[in-house]
Amino acid sequence: MPEDPRSDQEHPQRQRVLRWLGIALSVVTLGAIVFAVRGLDFGDLLRSTPGDPLFWLAFIASYLLVPGVEWLIYRKLWRLPPSGMLPLLRKQVANELLLGYSGDAQLYLWVRQHGGGASAAAAVKDVAILSAAAGNVATLAMMAATAPMLWSLIDTGWLRALGISIGLVTLVSLAIFLFRNALFGLSSRQLWQIFAAHLLRLFLSILLLAVMWHVLVPQATVAWLLLLATVRLMLSRLPLFPNKDALFAGATIFALGAGSDTSRAIALVAALTIAAHIALLPLTYLPLLRNWLPGSNRAGRVKDRPMIEPE
Q1: CA separation (Å) from 167 to 111, 132, 164, 215?
Q2: Which of 86, 93, 243, 303 minimizes the number of CB atoms within 10 Å of its CB?
């Protein structure tokens, strides 16, 4: 029997639960923002920012890359309207500042509240799994490309731990594709298209990061920038660590010292990213205020919500 995309909207009790769950996750995300900025010196941040427009073009493109690519993916799957960029921006902030996939949980709730049935909500899971798989493949590829430099930087104990990590990452990536029929609800063609989109997004992300770091540290070699990108990718695969940019900045400062040009450049990009979260996240909630007010789930307002329509 075909799925009725409006089934959730016909159950006021379910809609109330979804709305309050969304509010709870949003409050937690806002709390994470407050926690992240507790030691941020905005005056020093403004004084440290470069005036080169190339840096800012790369930074803005890098920040919008993940939600932009995911919007294109969901646009193809659901005919997602332009307003769908707002929950994708909130998803990015939550995933980066809270535990991984907390943003995907917010997106799932948004999908169910805006006309997406079980199949649309399951697509959120498929896209998230494929994003992780693409991240694993990109990490392995970058580690292979920079293996000689990585080898020279770490001792035998680290190599042993790194080898175990590589094996686990490889097994997870292989398992995802070996059991794709049981894990995924989308067609094989859609899965490969989404996987390719995530790989392209990761390649562009590395390129944009290299551009930003090159502007800040022009004396850095291409090999050194690739090594930094590899370490950042490796740290991004660690579970249960929020704010991976801050983790990467801290690891760089620990390894190179706070006075290093590279350390300062990476810390600056991490601080600017947090500042962008602070600036954009409240704006993404403005259209939701009407839906969160008492009585917002009245039948007369259901028709105002953007509907998620499968292709």
Answers
A1: 35, 16, 5, 35
A2: 303
Name the DSSP class of 8.
Answer: G
Quote the CA–CA distance of 37 and 92 in Å, as a whole number. Answer: 17
- Phi-psi group of 309: left, alpha or beta (phi > 0 → left; psi -120 to 50 → alpha; rest → beta): beta
Place of tokens 């090594």: 227
**Which of 204, 207, 269 minimizes the C-alpha distance to 243?**
269
Which two structure tokens, joined as six digits, stand for 9? 């909207």
| Model pLDDT for residues 87-119, shown as the tens digit of each residue | 899 888 888 877 667 778 888 888 877 766 677
Cβ(303)–Cβ(115) below 8 Å: no
Residues in the chain: 311
CB atoms within 10 A of CB 167: 10
Dist CA 62 CA 207 (whole Å): 9
How many C-beta atoms surround the C-beta of residue 12 within 10 A? 12
**How deeply is 68 buried, as exposed, middle or buried, from its count of CB atoms within 10 A (0-12, 13-18, 19+)?**
middle
What is the 8-class DSSP label of residue 98?
A: S
Return the DSSP state at 241: -
Report the distance separating Cα 237 and Cα 204, nearest Å.
18
Q: Which residue numbers in the chain have pLDDT < 50? A: 1-10, 18, 20, 298-306
| Torsion angle of the four alpha carbons 99, 171, 236, 282, in this order, in degrees rounded to the nearest 10 | -40
User: CA 230, CA 150: separation in Å to the nearest integer?
Assistant: 9
- Residue among 162, 97, 94 nearest 128 (CA): 94
CA distances (Å), origin 22, targets 25, 89, 178: 5, 15, 34
pTM of the model: 0.77
Per-residue confidence (pLDDT) for residue 109, from 0 to 100? 80
Q: Say which amino acid occupies 151.
A: W
Q: What is the pLDDT of residue 164?
A: 66
Residue from 32, 42, 31 nearest 268 by CA: 42
